[in-house]
Amino acid sequence: MEVKAEAPYMKSTETINEIRIKVICALIPSVMLSVIIFGFKPVISYIICVLACALTEIMLDFFVLKTNKFDFDSILTGLILSLTIPPYCPVYIAAFGGLFAIIIKKLLLERFCKKLFNVSALVRAIMFIVFGSLFKTFTPSVLTDFSSAKESYIKMFFGVGGGYICACSVIAVVLGGIILAALKIINPLIPILFMGSFSLMSFCLGNDGFSMLLSGAIPFAAVFMATDCATSPLTLKGKAVFAVTGGILTALIQILLPYSDAVFFAIIIINLLVRPIDKYIRTKPFGVLK
Amino acid sequence: MKKLAVFKKNVNGIKLWGAELSENKHSEIAPIPDTVTLLMSEDVSPVVKIGEKVSVGQKIGEPIDPKKEIPVYSSVSGEISEISEKSDDNGKTLYIKILCDKRQTLCEKFEEPKITSKESLVSALKTSGIISKDYGKPLYLKIKRFTEKKPEYLIINAADFEPYITVNDRECIENAENIAFGIRILKKWLKPQRTCISITKKQKEAINSLVENIGMSTQIRMVSDNYPNGNEKIIIYLITGETIEIKHNNRFLVLDIFTVSAIGKYLRTGRPITDTMITVSGPAIKNPCNLVVPLGISFADAINSCGGFRFSPCAVVSGSIMTGKNEDNLEFTYVDQALKGIIAIDKLEKNDVEYDCIRCGRCVSTCPMKLIPPEIEKALAKENTIKLKSLHPEMCIECGCCEYICPAKRKLLSVCQNAKFEVVGKRFKSGGKN
Ligand code: SF4
Ligand code: SF4
Question: Is any atom of ligand 2 closer than 6 Å to the C-beta of B371?
């Protein structure tokens, strides 16, 4: 027997695209600050990357997959991706990243492993492997020497630091995170635990976790990548475990890799853990007596 | 039954709207329609014939097996015009159509029931014909469970948690004496260890009126007005902090305040319940209001007494908008005591495209039962019974919150219902534990 149900007749009006637009809005502070700091150079790479994503998606939909499912997801992916590359990077890198991201997402992730990985983190990690040396040349040098003086903390916080575009200002990222948390799109637990466990772990390893937190792409990744709903666990408990593991892994990988790129690899690894977490860490339903 | 430790009495849920349409409106009495149609199950046999004159409160149906059913009373005065039969999945139903003479002459033989013991209370409730609004079944069935053992807690729910529905609120304001009388009788004979009324903060007028009439003898507790806090399990948890299995519940008696008021009314006058209050509301209704209607009035007549439709509605939902049913045949659907309201809505967000689940977790953090609907959906699609069982879909109260909140517009409610059926149905087969 099939229980026939048509209720509820009342539904929230929020749609997936609305959520994505809200995330894009939360990225605006980062984008604006990057313009203030680096001038209009990064804007070109945003546009190129987003365009590359959108066009690839449309092409793939039209010619290969023969569906019409265009949504804001690809634009969001493009924007996040272009924020993680160095500001003075040549545009072909951005274009390549966007193209690659959508191809991976559409042809690989959605078909074979059900969006197992966060696309932008995955592509960013691949880009690091391919263009790693290039990245170094285009990264402003402010970041490469960690001056541990107190005033540089403050500078970094308000965004005079260098590095990747997203890493230019922690305050913009924090603002974006607050917007998202207030709109109930992300659970603030994930970024907080992620960054908390990261600084604790790197403190244990004898690194200056705090300055890395302020200067690196870590807050950005914690707010915008680790919380990506498709690749984070469903339950609150699962989310906590996920975030803590992510933070610790980042600190560990950081020993092997230069400052900011470790976090993308860590996110890919914890993405792998999502399914097991969902399977084994469950909240007990209300009223199950055992 | 084991107790669970309680840290914070709070249950997930959603904030819904709609009550403001009929909230502060005094109830109106609907004009007597031309005909009413009363329904009887096959366990009730009619004691009237076609053409016979009946008056308000006259018994027209007598249960064949008094253990199973309750008598049916005429809600209007007039003439029996038609007795027809219809059968569906739930068995045969008798439809008794009465042509109203609109004079509403009362039947003369009302006697105040004398309550001398618990048993006489139960049998009085049986003859009263009261069907409880929250439970949808004859009230005495619920009370009967408590005749041997005293209930630990008598919880009377005075709040309306369903969107658009405001009948409990109105009943508190307008018929508080009946409520007070009902509570007194219930307390006297059932001897609950504690009694408490649950109400939401919004209902200031109702609180005042209750305090005035009941005094301080009964505790009034505030609960949040989230949907679906009206669910029995949730309200027991909110008030007492205990999680129980409803099927084996013989400790907590939860009653709707509307039902308590009906008890009071019957015990004071001896007049069987022949009318009920419903909320006729929704964006498509011209004049949303709380309406006192004779039982058996058709939906179309009830809506017409509220000024009809403002524009043609997209759906007319009976009962609750979150769990109710879309009635397309308004002329032939009739109001019964269990009905809380009729809601006509202007647009359905149903036709939206269903997207893939984006795993946003909204449904998980909204489900009052802390279930994981997308996992249930997956397990159901794969017919993975072991996994399905481990997800406990049988705990689902079918409130529809998950589907309400889902941004991908997945049809989670029907998924959970199917999963529940799958699990519960199989359990019955495999030896019938629980
Ligand atoms: S609310 Fe809908 S989209 Fe979000 S996790 Fe639940 S089923 Fe998936
Ligand atoms: S319908 Fe069931 S699964 Fe959905 S929110 Fe309500 S109790 Fe939870």
Answer: yes
- Is the Cβ–Cβ distance between B68 and B45 less than 8 Å? no
B275-345, what's its fold?
Ubiquitin-like (UB roll) (3.10.20)
Any A CB within 8 A of B350 CB: yes
Q: Dump pLDDT digits (tens) for A54-95.
A: 888 888 888 877 776 677 888 898 888 888 887 777 888 888
0.90 surpassed by complex ipTM = no
Residue A3 is assigned to a structural domain of this protein:
no
Which chain B residues have a beta carbon less than 8 Å from that of A231? 359
For residue A204, the domain's CATH number is 1.10.3430.10
Q: Show the domain range for A214.
A: 17-280
Which fold does the domain B5-26+111-269 belong to in CATH? Rossmann fold (3.40.50)
CATH level 2 (architecture), domain B35-100: Beta Barrel (2.40)
A46 is a domain residue: yes
Position A209 scores a pLDDT of 67
Looking at residue B112, the DSSP 8-state letter turns out to be: P
Beta bridge partners of B279: B290, B341
Q: Which residues contact A59 (CB under 8 A, 6 or more apart)?
A: none
H-helix or E-strand spanning residue B189: helix B176-190
Ranges of residues in chain B whose predicted pLDDT is under 70: 1-9, 348-352, 426-434
Interface of A with B (CB under 8 A): 1-16, 18-19, 187, 229-236, 239, 278, 282-289
Total structural domains in chain A? 1
